[in-house]
Amino acid sequence: MAKAYDVIVVGGGHAGIEAALAASRLGCSVLLLTMNPDTLGMMSCNPAIGGLAKGQIVREIDALGGAMARNIDETGIQFRMLNTAKGPAVQSPRAQADKMAYAARMRRVIEEDPHINLAMDTVKGLIMEQGRAAGVRGSYEEFYRGRSVVITPGTFLRGRLHIGDRIFSGGRLGEHPADGLGEALKELGLPMGRLKTGTPARVDGKSLDYSRMEPQKGDDPPRPFSFRTERLSLEQVPCFKTHTREKTHDIIRKNLKLSALFSGNITGIGPRYCPSIEDKVKKFPDRDSHLIFVEPEGRYTTEMYLNGISSSLPAEIQEEFIHTIEGLEKARIVRYAYAVEYDYVAPYILRETLEVRDIPGLFLAGQINGTSGYEEAAAQGLMAGANAALGVLDKPPFILRRDEAYIGVLIDDLITKGADEPYRMFTSRAEYRLLLRSDNADRRLVPRAAEIGLVDKGFLDAVKEKYEKCENLVSILRKESLKTDHAEWKRFNGRKLFDLLKVREMDMETLLSLSALEGDWEGDVLESVAIEAKYDGYIARALADIRKFKKMEEMRLPSSFDYRGIKGLTSEAAEKLNRYRPSSVGMASRISGISPADISVLIVYFSRKEEP
Amino acid sequence: MPVMKKVFDTIAAPLTVRGEAAVSLIRISGPDALSVVAEVFKTRSSLNKAPARKVILGDIVDGEGHCLDRALATLFRAPASYTGEDVVELSLHGSPLLTDLVMDRLQEKGARPAEPGEFTQRAFINGKLTLLEAESVADLISAKTPALLTKAAANLKGELDRKLLEFTRRMTDILAALNLALDFEEEFITETDREAVREQVGHLQEDIRREIRNARNAIREKNGLHVLILGPPNAGKSTLMNALLGHERVLVSDTPGTTRDYITEPFFFEGHALILIDTAGIRGEEADSLERLGISKSLSLVEKSDMIIYMAEAGSSSFEIPETVREAGVPVIPVASKWDAREESSAPPEPWLPLSALTGINMEKLKQRLSEEAGQLTETGGSGAVLLNRRQLDHLLRAGEHLEKAQEALILGTYEEVVSDFIRQAAEELEMLTGKRIMEEMLNHIFGRFCIGK
After folding, report:
1. Number of Cβ atoms within 10 Å of the Cβ of A488
2. Is residue A52 within 8 angstroms of chain B, CB to CB?
3. pLDDT digit of tens for each residue in chain B (454 aa)?
4. Strand B272-278 relative to strand B263-269: parallel, antiparallel, unpaired?
5. For the sheet containing B112-113, what is the strand order?
6. Rounded-to-integer distance, Cα A245 and Cα A610, Å
């Protein structure tokens, strides 16, 4: 029999890649199984990484040693910071990717990894031994033995593609679905449902009239995603803005019943926050125009992605409405838009480690848990891969709390609230978003990652050094006062420099030029200190808030316990707690349908238990 | 936690005050309520099969089977009972000895004496009452005025929950508006309309301020309005106190400085619960040391009073109110006393009220003033629900502070995410107020202030 791997990762998408790499960083032997090595790290939908809240996640992945940020730094073709009119906590980096380059480089990262073996196979089922996952069954090779298994099938789990009334089996257009695995998971008794997502048409750039669109350029200078990328040097390419018109909407409205979404062909629930153009036209009848970003699919292709108009209308209707759009009058469609429906597993069956509670050794990550987005998937992959490895190594699990990382928010939300629709991250989902910023992800997470070996000492030392410099600068700024003849600023003379940074119009550059401070600080140090000053006070309060609720988070609940045995709970609450198995009272309080009265019962019951 | 010794066991306690009376009522609640009672209370057919919410006649028996009383039992089956558990209420004849014996027997058979507030705590944790409804039970029982009674009853019926839920909803709306612009790229957003947000926050602040004022007045009424009778020695303060009370409560003499300490007495009057406080007279050098102690006490009472009747003898050289009293921030009714014994006939300067407690001159006028002031001090804007305790008020005050900071941040042009953070915290305070967010400490403190049998 073939050798047993420590960790088997099924699926080579954004989740699978980070899972394999994380397990490898912890020293485990990894088998990465993909249906097709040529599609490793493929961006199935939009050609971009990051965005609001997602950009923060990418930085967190980077701070945990993940590959996504560095990969986009190497293969991005346009970099922008979003929400710059708002405060730093809600600003997020985003980059346009060269899709082919992104996937190609990612494949090299995987192939160069000494602990990862890459193999092509379509997994049909799980090997179970004494209730544990012990490997997978392939289509070409019957047995792959592994001490733990991470499953990351994306939209391939019994994937069905819809264009109008045409239905194709597949996870992406032109690719086979993973039907066997979907059925196998169902047979294991996992609670499964259907979700839906969609992707817009790609058109040939040669056929577009860019003079009728508004170009959108990258930031100058472009700022890297990764804390480990010093600077970016690239020639950035522009995107273009255009919009639908009344006529576009007329065509869509007239043909609504031909869309797979409304014909009854699709039963899965789609993402409310990333709606198809059919949805938008229907839900916002008084809007006569919707924005479209025309984004290049890469540097060496003329294909352009029409961000904002995903659809599952028949091909000829797509053609018709796209031609009503400014600049796209003569657009030639290369790939039609389609909707994809796929299986997911209700995530309440997962532990915070993303391990299936009742099947030790089996981990799930990415769209199978009901999320949407490359970043959300990659984050889960990293956490699942790390925890699969830690389990094999017999080490304590790696769990991030809601106040530590968006990744903590993401996983906690999934296992307490489930996913009734594809879950996308927003900054407003985080109670402590003033703390969870993209600029300080290294400070928050590198020490945690270094503790378990997810990042090396070099990275940790660099981060320590950076924040020592920050503290140094802060103490100088708190000591020194302003003394200037500058007409605009002299009214602030005598004020501490640190406090001056709190003035909204004041930035670090101006401050340094006004004061005669001696010193040479790197850009990221200056930025970090400026942000700390802007949020000074608010951060202290947020920390106090965390302490206030900590007790509830620390009141642990048993992992195997029959809640029906507690008299004060309603049977609904007991059943729900039996299903969700929250690890703390705080987590129980976030489960929908668990009332304050139920929480009181838990407090009374479990705080009593320890006393004689 | 002081409240519950063991969780969800069967508990029992007398609901009525100990003492000889027509009836004594004992409540038994918990999973074994019926079987425990069946050992003590014998009926013709099995208690277990008896219908709920019907009165059952039976015998109270002691350990040897001797009958101690003919009594009535009412059964409530879970969850249709006060606590949400199986409940039996036993009506005995009101003998303290009998009540003690029955309680002993119930304990022998496995019931535990209930802790203060434990029945109501169980009603809360079994989802029969919201936290605010549970708190209103204590308020209802301790209400000293009809107005407080109707307010506590409104709270008990969930009106306060509904009122606060509306505040929460408005905060959620504001948060949604702020976050829309933060969470979405150009597609959906128009920039945040800060003016509109400011206006919404402003309205919310106004409503919460009104609620805070009402709560302060209601709590003041609950504590009793402290009316301080103050003035120089021999101004007739004790005479006035006695006249108001209608009986000789305080020793009166012509010797100045007779009252050396202060004396409090409840005074129920036109629907208000007043607490009259007769004090030692305030004077300067000639007071002896004991008297001086009384004087300093009188002045320290000023801070804690809700209203002051300041008395000066008619014909006294100066009608002047001391600065400490004037600046106490509470209503002052200046009274020119002993008007019957005055020498000249000219009226005292405005706004001094000429009065004789002895003959009753202008006593009605004084009472009218008292009533007016009391009415204003306890005004709560109608008969609707109102916050009735310090815990509730503290959370609302903090919510108000967070909104104020949000408003400040909006005016200063601070980032939306900071504004949103303040509003989130205000909403969190409301959640703790209403018990939507419950923490261990709250469970202890809230039910700890109840009496046994509630």
Report:
1. 10
2. yes
3. 334 445 678 999 999 999 999 999 999 999 999 999 999 999 988 888 889 999 999 999 998 989 999 999 999 998 899 999 999 999 999 999 999 999 999 999 999 999 888 999 889 888 899 999 999 999 999 898 999 999 999 999 999 999 999 999 999 999 988 888 888 765 555 677 889 999 999 999 999 999 999 999 999 999 999 999 998 888 888 899 999 988 777 777 777 766 667 888 999 888 889 999 988 877 655 556 666 666 677 778 888 899 999 998 877 667 788 888 888 889 999 999 888 877 766 777 888 898 888 888 899 999 999 999 999 999 888 768 999 999 999 999 999 999 999 999 999 888 889 999 999 999 999 999 999 888 777 777 777 766 666 6
4. antiparallel
5. B41-42, B55-61, B67-76, B87-94, B21-29, B11-14, B112-113
6. 66
Please name the amino acid found at residue A463: V
Nearest to B183 among A426, A600, A604 (CB): A426
Q: Does B187 touch chain A (CB under 8 A)?
A: yes
Amino acid letter, residue B405: K
Neighbouring-strand partners of residue A195: A269, A342
Contact A605 B425 (CB under 8 A): no
Q: Using the beta-carbon criterion (under 8 Å), do A596 and B435 form an inter-chain contact?
A: yes
- CB-nearest partner of A595 from B127, B414, B420: B127
Judged by CB atoms closer than 8 Å, whether chains meet at A86 and B417 is answered as yes
Q: Which of B186, B425, B440 sits opposite A607 (nearest CB)?
A: B440
**Residue A126, strand partner residues:** A136
| The pairing of beta strand A192-199 with beta strand A338-345 | antiparallel
Chain A positions touching B415 (Cβ under 8 A) are 86-87, 89-90, 534
CA distances from B353 to B275, B310, B323, B328 (A): 21, 10, 19, 20
Q: Considering only CA atoms, which of A483, A406, A390 is closest in space to residue A438?
A: A406
Cβ of residue A605 closer than 8 Å to a chain B Cβ: yes
Whether B27 has its CB under 8 Å from any CB of chain A: the answer is no
Q: CA A43, CA A296: separation in Å to the nearest integer?
A: 13
Dump strand ranges (E) for A35-142.
Answer: 48-50, 76-82, 92-97, 116-120, 125-129, 132-137
pLDDT confidence of residue B301: 85
Nearest to A57 by CA among A562, A467, A122, A49: A49
Distance from CA of B102 to the nearest CA of A (A): 26
Predicted confidence at residue B226, as pLDDT, reads: 94
Beta bridge mates, A575: none
Contact A427 B440 (CB under 8 A): no
Q: Which amino acid type is present at position B292?
A: R
Task: Please state whether the peptide bond connecting residue B349 to the residue before it is cis, i.e. omega within 30 degrees of 0.
Answer: no
Hey, are the CB atoms on A535 and B126 less than 8 Å from each other? Answer: no
Residues B432, B395: contact at Cβ < 8 Å? Answer: yes
Contact residues on chain A for B436, CB-CB shorter than 8 A: 596
Task: Say whether residue B7 is in contact with chain A using an 8 A CB cutoff.
Answer: yes
Residue entry with tokens 């190497």: A74
* Contact assignment for B425 to A545 by CB distance below 8 Å: yes
| B85, B175, B417 member nearest A87 (Cβ) | B417
Residue A437 — φ and ψ, nearest 5°? -105, 165
Residues B81, A568: Cα–Cα separation, whole Å: 13
Q: Whole-model pTM?
A: 0.88
B1: nearest CB among A89, A552, A607: A607
Tokens of A28: 């485990």
Does A324 touch chain B if contact means CB atoms closer than 8 Å?
A: no
**Contact across the interface for B416 and A545, Cβ inside 8 Å:** no
Is B6 within 8 Å of A608 when comparing Cβ atoms? yes
Q: Per-residue pLDDT for A322 more than 80?
A: yes
**What residue of A is the nearest CA neighbor of B129?**
A597
Decide if A82 and B185 are in contact by the 8 Å CB cutoff.
yes
Q: Which residues contact B184 (CB under 8 A, 6 or more apart)?
A: A52, A273
